[in-house]
Amino acid sequence: MSVGTELLLGEIVDTNAAFVARELSLRGVTLQRKATVGDNLERISGLIRESLSRADLVILGGGLGPTDDDLTREGIAAVAHETPAEDPELLAWLSNLFTSRERTMAPINRKQAWLIPSASALPNPLGTAPGWFVTLPQGHEFAGKRIAALPGPPREMNRMFREELLPRLNLPTWAFYAVTLHTSGIGESDVATHLGDLTKIANPSVATYARKTGTDVRVAASAKSAEEARQLAEPVLAQARTALGRYIWAEEKTGDPPATLAGAVIKLLAGRSLGLVEAGSGGTLALQFAGAAALKGAAISDDHATLLTLGLTPITLSRDGACSEAAALELAHGARERFGTGIGLSVCAAAEGEQQGQVAIAIVGEGLERVASVNWPGDAGQVRERAASTALNLAFRALSAAEADQTQAGQTQANQTQAGQR
């Protein structure tokens, strides 16, 4: 449960719920529900009761401040049928904390030293709000079930969750193994069709997620050991790889650095340099390669006169327009020549105007020339983002195909050499 009217109003993005979900899933805990509630005592206590009727553990984030609208303590107390009171040890700790910071503790801060009989305090080394860990007593309708209350600021919550709450939960030893297959050039519904009945399996589970760069497929298994979890996942992973092979641009295990389509393209460049020309996409493609050593230069312009200096010819501009496959192809060659690179990549996008949504992209190199066009719906920002994703997808496909051709040619030559030696 995330507590705070500011969350309901969209003034603050709730990153705490995502953090808790990830941490619990890594430990084999099934999260049944996430909910957000405003600063209202009746609604907070009502949601706690409802949650306890469904789950063994309820975790609340936020609402532990000192003000009148910080009502998490009161909500838990109402559900437990207990009355909060100042805890002398907590009050002394809180007073010393303010003194150590050379501040005077306001009377309203005394609220943060409250406890109920069923609660123990969770220390907070980063703030003034201790957490609560409640085990509901015998005789209560939810006897034995537990409630945890953590502070709202993410730094405080994350540390308290890991260092104070998790050790108290006594979770069974459980291992989690997950691999995400990143795909592009295929929609989520088509991915699901390719996967067939794999998405109906419980452990390992197979789930699909639509992303800006394509569709992710996450295969996740849990077991008593990491090796058992891996062994559960691998056969299903193998089937998913077979079903989606040519669309997969990266695999990412839990704990790996985030994979990007631009990173996959850079890997396929295999030491070759890259030059970019963008027309109409506002630098969204170049941004994907920011900091990459492979990128030797980028030119970004919507001005026709400038594009004519970058390889676009007047006849193509007049006959086909600046957002055409012919223009994209000339600008890709122009990028390669302008920056002296092994690979030239271009994107031409009409983010606004009569042709809004029209995108053309091209990639060229030694023995390599690919061009494509597409029409994307959406506003100017969406068209620019999708243009960059389309360019990355084309680059990945073209470079992958070239690499496969080169590998096959090398194998053929090796076989011929071996045959000749016989």
Structure description:
The protein is elongated, with a radius of gyration of 29 Å. The protein is built from 14 helices and 17 strands. The chain has 3 domains: 2-169, MoaB/Mog-like domain (Molybdenum Cofactor Biosythetic Enzyme, Chain A); 175-257, Alpha-Beta Plaits; 264-407, CinA-like (Maf protein, Alpha-Beta Complex), CATH 3.90.950.20. The protein has a 5-stranded mixed beta sheet with strand order 14-13-15-16-17, sandwiched between helices. A 4-stranded mixed beta sheet has the order 3-8-7-6. The chain is 41% helix and 22% strand. The N and C termini lie far apart (73 Å). The model has no long low-confidence stretch (mean pLDDT 92). By secondary structure, the chain is α/β, with parallel strands linked by helices. Residues 1-172 form the MoaB/Mog domain.
Can you summarize this structure?
The protein is of the alpha/beta class. Helix content is 41%, strand content 22%.
| Overall radius of gyration | 29 Å
Biggest beta sheet attributes: 5 strands, mixed
How far apart, in Å, are the first and last alpha carbons? 73 Å
Question: What's the level 1 CATH class of the largest domain?
Answer: Alpha Beta
| CATH architecture descriptor text of the largest domain | 3-Layer(aba) Sandwich
Please state roughly what percent of the residues sit in beta strands, choosing from under 5%, 5-15%, 15-25%, 25-35%, 35-45% or over 45%.
Answer: 15-25%
Annotation field: number of helices: 14
CATH homologous superfamily heading of the largest domain = MoaB/Mog-like domain
Q: What number is the mean pLDDT?
A: 92
Shape: elongated
Helix coverage percent of residues?
40-55%
Low-confidence regions: none
Structural class: alpha/beta
Instruction: From the 3D structure, determine the CATH topology of the largest domain.
Output: Molybdenum Cofactor Biosythetic Enzyme, Chain A
Query: What's the number of structural domains?
Result: 3
For the biggest β-sheet, the strand order reads 14-13-15-16-17
* Number of β-strand runs: 17
Protein name: CinA-like protein
Domain MoaB/Mog: 1-172
Family: Belongs to the CinA family.
Pfam families: CinA, CinA_KH, MoCF_biosynth
